[in-house]
Specification:
The chain has twelve helices and 34 strands. The chain has 641 residues and is α+β, with helices and mostly antiparallel strands. The strands form eight sheets. Strands 2, 3, 4, 5 and 6 form a five-stranded antiparallel beta sheet that branches. Strands 7, 8, 9, 10 and 11 form a five-stranded antiparallel beta sheet that branches. Strands 1-22-21-20 form a four-stranded antiparallel beta sheet, with no helix packed on it.
Length: 641
Amino acid sequence: MNYLMMKNLCAIFILLISAHTAIAQYDPSKISKKAVDLLEKGIGQAQDGDFKGGILTIQQAIKQEPRFLDAYLSVAGMYSEMKNYQQAIDNYLKAKAIDSIYFRDYNLNYSINLAGKGAFQEALDAVNVFLAIPNLNQQSIRAGEYRRKTYQFAIDYAQKLPLGAYRFEPANMGDSINSNMSEYYPTITLDGKELIFTRRVKGINEDFFGSVNINGTWSKAQPLAGNINTSSSEGAQNISQDGQWLIFTGCNFPNGYGSCDLYISYLTPQGWSVPENLGWRINSESWESGPSLSPDKRDLYFASNRPGGYGGSDIYVSHRLPNGQWSEPENMGPGINTAGEEACPFLHADNQTLYFTSNGHPGYGGDDLFMVRKTGKNTWSKPINLGYPINTIENEGSMVVAADGKTAYYASDRSDSRGLLDIYTFELRNDIRPSRTLWVRGKVFDKKTNKGLPSAVELTDLATQDVLSKVQTDETGNYLVTLPVGKDYAFNVNRKGYLFYSENFPLSQGAPDSTFNIDIPLQPIEANASIVLKNIFFDVNKYELKPESTSELDKVVILLRDNPTLKIQINGHTDNAGKADDNITLSNNRAKAVVTYLATKGIELQRLSFKGFGATQPIADNTTEQGRAQNRRTELKVVSQ
């Protein structure tokens, strides 16, 4: 039993034997000693953690003394500790019916249970009655005013954003996932096939368990294979979207920098590897926990109470550098962090929506769940409270949202729990869902040998030229990424010894949750090798480069700088519409425009040449628009290395 619970129960007993100052009809001294003894016995049972037994014992006292108001108050307090708010309310009302004046001091506790049921207006009325009591001590006033503020927040929230048809119906994930021990901190892979969570084993040790979704049914959870679970406690984990990395919190590990550090383990054919400390930039002498990787593994969000923050614990972000190391963590600032506690960040697969817990922003009391959306490269919206009934008067813990943007997972000790905390799933309300996403998977490989090539795949928003994601493939060249719907993208890959890959994909019309397969062949750098520059754009019959071409051209600049002896020729091509001579001139001017741009970036002219071929070298049928679009192209050809 926790300290607060014991203190509350002791307070019930103290109130029982103390003199009540208000003028009331109820007189505790007239209650029989036998009934009082039963009440004291029941309170003792509750203090030992046996609430059900304590309630049954006190109900025997009530049978003997039907107007035993203090017994009803004690039963109400025990039901409240069990989060059985309706039974608590019913017993408070029975006590109030006996003597409303005597009951007046209990309106604060009564209000808390009303709020637990979502009756916030009634809760506000009750706490106002409590605060109207003359000569309340400062501690009671502070407690009452705090609750009044949270109830008013809940009322205002409901008026601004009525729930409408939304129903919050968390479903227990069943015996395959949950046990009579505590299960919590769920994390799920992008494809929704693997769920990993923390289980408290034998009441003290925390280990990782995993379950696989097979045709909609979760397999019996098993300890993770490999070397990740130890005799120490591992918890608060996050699996990368591709299922290859697991970053987690380890406390009091032998190689730790502070009380709790962040560690990483990699999936191998033999299971999960021996965990590695993420190092001194991420970890400090303070507490670090709650990691969340961005879907492209470039950003790591976590909570820390290191010095220099805004409150007890703040949310930080660190960026993965080109050498694989992590940058110095950046505090996410006062827009997200407060003088209170922020923790449990979770970045959705859309790479734009971040959920976290906080007790510093206005809410329902305790830790609430909040959401922010990315508004720019390093800027975020104001935090949005997820609202009742997702948030309650209790402390809400970590929550993750599947790639579909609507299915959420969290831990709770609801009435249908198998024991202590269980993992539940529920559907998010529409307005607090992340962006819908597309899934893109594929393989980067050598065009000549078909061998997979470990590479970085960069995805750029064609409209804004913002790099939305930079995904590292696995060792065999496979990659998996999610992208927000409604956008067109450029895919670029640079790898030493190869011409870079460039392709644009009009995915803006793709349906949410669609899966695209995009394999990426890389052409080795050798004489006469060529690639089509897919993201070079001109207006019809014009040769001025459009602004959205610069991202691609800058890749050519990088290629030439990385290979200082490389000489190239830019070839321009058109379809067969119009006069042949005009097409030759147009294609020549377009190729020249590319060379001119490269020269302005410092590439020596002797390494560059250009030529326009008009419609003389078609690669597709000019009788269809699709074929003509393929023929209108700009090529890069290797002259010499």
